[in-house]
Write a structure and sequence with these properties.
Low-confidence stretches: none
Largest sheet: none
Strand content: under 5%
Radius of gyration: 43 Å
Number of helices: 3
């Protein structure tokens, strides 16, 4: 007879109480893990929202400071005059207005030619019949 490492024993099945206890333990563990995960998600969402609100608050504070300085400038006589001149082209009596027009480039005659004429010119130039002007 061959020796075995473990003596032969009578295997009994797992009791139903143990099986139900294990299933109940796994269910409770799963529910606890889900609640911890959701709690973590909420924590990080609140943290990110706080960062966004802090950034928005800083932006709004900067805008407020800009508006305060703009209002202070516009309440001065120089600021009011500049605002009137910009918005309504206000001119004091005795002042003249100079309008500066941008230079227009000279019209290129080749730009006004039709596509067909330009195509024929390119073809004739490519064949050496016509020289480029």
């Amino acid at each position: 007879m061959a020796k075995t490492q473990f003596p032969a024993s009578h295997h009994t099945g797992i009791s139903t109480k143990r099986l139900l206890g294990a299933a109940l333990g796994l269910l409770i563990f799963f529910l606890l893990m889900m609640s911890v995960i959701r709690l973590g998600e909420k924590y990080f969402a609140v943290r990110n929202r706080n960062k966004e609100l802090a950034t928005q608050s800083a932006d709004l504070q900067q805008k407020e400071n800009t508006l305060i300085s703009t209002n202070a400038y516009l309440s001065s006589p120089e600021g009011a005059e500049q605002s009137l001149r910009e918005r309504y082209n206000y001119v004091k009596p005795g002042e003249g207005m100079i309008v500066i027009m941008p230079e227009t480039p000279l019209a290129d005659p080749a730009a006004h030619q039709s596509i067909i004429v330009r195509w024929w010119d390119e073809l004739l130039h490519g064949l050496g019949i016509r020289k480029q002007s």
